[in-house]
Hints:
By secondary structure, this protein is an alpha/beta fold. The chain has 18 helices and 19 strands.
Amino acid sequence: MENKDYSNEIDLRRFLRELKTRKWLYTAIFVIVFGAAIAYVCRKEPEYTAHSTLLIEASSSESQGRGGSLMQMMRVFSTGGFASSSVDNELLLVNTHDLVLRTVKAMGLNINCVQKNGLIKRTLFLNAPLSLSIPEEVADTLSEGYNVEVKIKDGKADITAYRGRFFKKTLLKENNVSLPCTFSTPSGPFTIIANGQLPAKATYIFGVTGYTPCANAIYEDIEADISDKMADGIEFSYTSPNKDKAIAVLNTMMSEYNAKRIERNKETALIELNFLTDRINSLYTDLVESEAKVAKFKTEQQFVDIEAEAPILLETSMDAQEQLLKASALTLYYEQVLELLRSGKDGMLPAVTAPGEDSKSQSSSMVTEYNTQMALLLELRRSAKPGNNALKAAEHRVAEMKESIISSFSQLLKASQRTIATRSSMVGEMKGHIRKLPAVEKEYINLSRDQLLNNELYAFLVEKRESALLKLNSQETLGFIIDPAYTDPKPSLKKPLILLLAGLVAAIFCSLCLAFIFYKRTNKIYNSYDLKTLGLESGTIECSINSPCANDIRTMVLNRIEKGTVFVAGHGGAATVEIANQIEKSFAAAGLNCGNYKVEGQSNDSLLSTESQDSIRQLLKSHRYVFVSLPDFEQTKDIAKVIDSDTNQLIIIIEKGSLGIDGLKRAIGAIDIRNIIIAIVSV
């Protein structure tokens, strides 16, 4: 049978026995540790938690035209606002170390004033009767803080500057000084002034640190998170022993956030404004040059607007051609009339109206009048005799009219010919100009496109510059403080409860640790479970002088061996001898034939001899059991060879608390635990 190793296990029965044995000691330790935690909590100032809420609004300059109408519609119908990523960005800005550092510098939080009254301390903020200041450059570079203790008595002050809490290192000590005063320290000069009437007697302690260490401490205490998934807001919380300080820190932090946002907007607006100004100045030169090119092109091509002038040119060309046709018809008419008149024949002139000429024009009237006189002349010639006065007069009128018509029509013919030449030239020019229009239009489009783009870009940049200028002078920010800082009506119980719980855990832990130490150091055998580590718990019986266990031991022996040798070893006083005698009597009372073998001397070694073995075997022939009392308990292991047998049993009687577990282990050595029975006797 393999025995399990219990040497590394903790037996709760032994541990509970240890707690019960020294219960007053452990109770005292628990009370001391837990009482110290209670005293610390009672001495510690109550802390108040301030809360505030900041709503992140979309900037009006950014929201205009962002994404068009579709984006605006999605923003309206989206859950929690379409700009949730913007809230995350603002939360990232709020949770920056730089924002806390700005708050620390703005409020001077690197100097903390505490009024001390015995063991009680009270943090002062707005109502401190004293104030301490250090130069800005010192606060920026101070890495290791120090404390300044000011004791006021009868209007005078005792000032001590030191580092450390338990092992104080004094940096400066001045007694009986008047306020205000300035002193030099290794970190730099500091100044103490009175803000009002000083009390007759009081003690104030100023904690002085640099801006950066103070910001690091406050950064850990300020909590900022999204207030609600359905809204674009950020909630702040900060805990401080002073209500006014907690409120001021959150309000200042939100103000610094808005100020930082405005600074960022101004910075980007200034960069944009400078760029736009340079670009506009550069673009203005390009615009002037493109306008000059367009003007020069129009001057060279002799037109103002192609789209407006092209129809006019076409219409003018058609009119010129029409006038040319009319002039050609008139020319032919005038030539025909002159040819008839110059031929010397008397006849009627063509009385048709030339194209484009009014029927009541001078030329038409002259031809009509000539034809009338010519008809009259012809009539007189047929009826009158030669030499008739009327005939002569008619011939004279006709001759005068002929000369007049020839003269007039000659002038009209020349005028018509000049008109034809002019109109022909004009028509040619118009046709040539019109044929050039597509190429001219193409070049004009290129020039006008460049001018148009420059104009539009110039207007756009000017508009953007005005927008950047407005943004530069705008105080608009994304953060709207919808809920200024306020504190809970009652102080926060979070830290006190945590401290009390920590004190309770520490008290229990200290008591259990001390009990565990005693548990490990206590090695005596008091109960059967003390022998669990040796695997002997099941073979152990507890008894006392007044409540003997002889019969129980007898039963155990009978269950293990039918016949054999019973070795008896005892450790302790007379109680062990008494129990050994009771065991033998119990066997005799049960009618079991038992014999005794007495070992000679004070050593167990004689049992290893052949004579002793033969003697025991002889006794076993006539007795069922043979009892052998071992004279040397410590050397029981020396006869392991004799004891380790299926017909032998070893009974070890131990007086309670007289023997350690290690002592028993050394005594039994390598003896098989199945052959061992333990009796623990209490006196």
